[in-house]
């Protein structure tokens, strides 16, 4: 019986840098795992508060076993200056291949109870960061 080596559908260039806004949230950490398992070796995790729990700390330790360089930064990506600093720091690891925007200000509620104010509060930071990073 002949066996074939399976290749992942998506692979990351180990020389490139991958930025995850909201990188220390649950989804951000899972995306980080996914990228590392597909070859990423330079991750920049953006978080307003930095590492605040054991799960995030354990993920960062685990990624070191893959010889990954992971930077946790707290730049305010809702400002033009914060985005410029983020990109400058990230590019020191290698050219930026991708930016994943997972950050969110949580204002969840049932749809029928959602207010315009809560929606704007939740979406505005993501929209501002996207505008500055896309400039």
Automatic annotation (TrEMBL):
A Gene Ontology biological process term: fatty acid biosynthetic process
InterPro entries reported for this sequence: NAD(P)-bd_dom_sf (IPR036291), PKS_KR (IPR013968), PKS_NRPS_Biosynth_Enz (IPR050091)
Domain Ketoreductase (KR) span(s) in chain numbering: 17-134
GO molecular function annotation: fatty acid synthase activity
PANTHER family cross-referenced by the UniProt entry: FATTY ACID SYNTHASE, FATTY ACID SYNTHASE 3
Name recorded for this polypeptide: Ketoreductase (KR) domain-containing protein
Organism whose genome encodes this protein: Photinus pyralis
């Amino acid at each position: 019986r002949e066996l074939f080596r399976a290749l992942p559908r998506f692979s990351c260039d180990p020389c490139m840098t991958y930025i995850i806004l909201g990188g220390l949230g649950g989804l951000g950490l899972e995306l980080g795992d996914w990228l590392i398992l597909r070859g990423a070796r330079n991750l920049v995790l953006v978080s307003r508060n930095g590492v605040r729990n054991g799960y995030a700390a354990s993920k960062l330790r685990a990624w070191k076993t893959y010889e990954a360089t992971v930077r946790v930064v707290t730049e305010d990506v809702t400002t033009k200056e914060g985005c410029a600093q983020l990109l400058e720091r990230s590019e020191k690891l290698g050219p930026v291949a991708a930016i994943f925007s997972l950050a969110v200000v949580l204002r969840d509620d049932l749809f029928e109870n959602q207010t315009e104010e809560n929606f704007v509060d939740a979406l505005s930071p993501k929209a501002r960061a996207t505008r500055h990073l896309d400039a």
